[in-house]
Design goal:
By secondary structure, the chain is mainly alpha-helical. It is built from seven helices and no strands. It has helices spanning 5-14, 16-28, 37-79, 86-105, 113-132, 147-151, 153-165. Residues 162-166 have low confidence and may be disordered.
Length: 166
């Protein structure tokens, strides 16, 4: 064990894994006065920000693919008989699954999911516009999908089948 807090604090820059281990030992042994509080707080804040960034990124990709599916699928499948949207479907399912896993592992994110959807939607529209070449006016100004549709693969499958048959 290190002799003092300044040694622990300097260990943060030199050997992060050892720094984390030493802080864990101090927490387990209830030696709170010896903890590197400043770096611990920094790490905790960064963890939360990282989780939020991951959620926003996955939602942006998922929403962009849902928009492409809804607003471009029929056009492409009419043009190219072999186009079936398989890669879009795979991306939608992957992102939906990953978001649900993230929410299960980080339940605190559930309280910000609606805000995250609303924040990610304009970026998803921009992404869909860039990828499809469709006008930005093609897409709704606000997210047309409910939280349940976004997070539930079965509901998504039922909902998107109507675009395949229309």
């Amino acid at each position: 064990m290190l002799d003092n807090m300044s040694e622990l604090s300097s260990l943060y820059d030199q050997n992060y894994t050892e720094w984390a281990h030493q802080n864990a030992v101090l927490l387990k042994t209830r030696r709170f006065a010896e903890l590197d509080i400043a770096h611990l707080l920094e790490e905790l804040e960064d963890m939360g920000k990282s989780d939020h960034r991951e959620l926003a990124s996955r939602l942006r990709i998922l929403l962009a693919h849902l928009l492409k599916w809804q607003f471009q699928y029929q056009q492409l499948s009419d043009k190219w008989r072999e186009f079936d949207g398989r890669s879009w479907r795979a991306t939608i399912i992957e992102q939906c699954t990953s978001i649900n896993i993230l929410l299960r592992k980080k339940p605190g994110l559930k309280s910000v999911i609606i805000d995250a959807i609303n924040d990610a939607y304009p970026e998803a529209v921009e992404l869909a516009t860039n990828e499809t070449g469709l006008s930005i006016d093609t897409f709704p100004k606000t997210c047309p999908y409910t939280k349940e549709q976004i997070l539930n693969t079965e509901l998504w499958e039922k909902n998107t089948q109507k675009y395949q048959t229309s």
